[in-house]
Amino acid sequence: MQGTLYEIDIRSILQLIEQGQRTGELLVEAYPASLGASDKQEWELSRESRSSETKANGGVGQYWLVFFVGGKIVYAADRHSNSFIRLRDYLYSHRAEKAIDILQSASLATTNEPEYAYLWLLLEKGAILPERGRAIIESAIEEIVFDLLGLRRGTFIFESGDAIAPQLTALDVNPLLSKTMRQLQQWKQFHPYIQSPHQVFIINNEDKLKGALPAQAYESIARWADGKTSLRQLSRFLKRDLLTLSKGIYPYAERGWINLIDPVTSRKQKAASGFKTQNSQRSPQIVCIDDDLSIGKKVEYILIERGYRAIAIPNPIEALGKVFQLAPDIILCDITMPQLEGLEICAMLRRSSKFRQTPIIMLTGKENFTDRVRARMAGATDYLTKPFGENELLLLLEKYLHL
Q1: Which of 81, 107, 145, 164 has the largest count of CB atoms under 10 Å?
Q2: How many Cβ atoms from other residues are within 10 Å of residue 357's Cβ?
């Protein structure tokens, strides 16, 4: 199941997944707000042309992943902000200092969602209790459903697959939708002064704000009015509902005593305005062919954040055509895929003069001598064993890009 949000809205997509009792993952990707209608086809084909942005503020190619088991939501990840920051915020609000220390010192190489894997690491080490872990996951899901239901421009794809494991909680879709729709109706009352949970705020008029608030309340606002802490982060820190928090800030934003800024939007607009001129400033282009959507998106996310142009293509047959259009500098290709094996793709590409010198790195779930020999015989340049870490991937790519 895939399409655009012009054809069907997020609410209907979630309800269809629940009714079908489906297990898998939903990927939703937003169009940049300033992208014109004539550019959408190019955008869908050339996601690798997106600008690189910092983890904290996300890029033009903003996307979310929602994981389902039997039609229920078990986890959701936000890919335009740093999920480790999100987890740290939740741990801070739960006063789990020991868990924060473990999180900062731990290192995982995983094909699973990193935040989810770290959360389970903390549970296994006894740094947090299961009920606290459930509360964190449920809050994360509610945040993302709130963002998705307000999205009007973008694309989506649902892929059936193995359940994300292990599972700690599961939320029914319809009660969550009803609750979130009510919240969105209330949220509209704060426009135009408060428009996004990602807005940060600063104090414009200290004297008037001091005079209007009790001393303790003013000190609390002044502490977080640093132009860096978003409304959503503040709601996590204070363990207060986003709507209640925004309702308290709104009168002072309306009077101009507090100013709210959306750094994410300003960065996206700047990046989108350069979308058509990026080809003149070509950064290395990487294509990842892997039928496992989560691995492909992990690779794409890592590389875009490092300034590469990257695109993940889950369908191996479709990938052959796109590879010839995109002419990437390096190709990453999974060995085992149902429709067409990676070694066959590698051999076919090597028959073309266009790809005789292009580094092709095979991705394999098992490291053994036979796979390595078969990969070399098919014309592969190198191979990478899954699961792999970020540094491992980047070092291998840099090795061949320098050549």
Answers
A1: 145
A2: 9
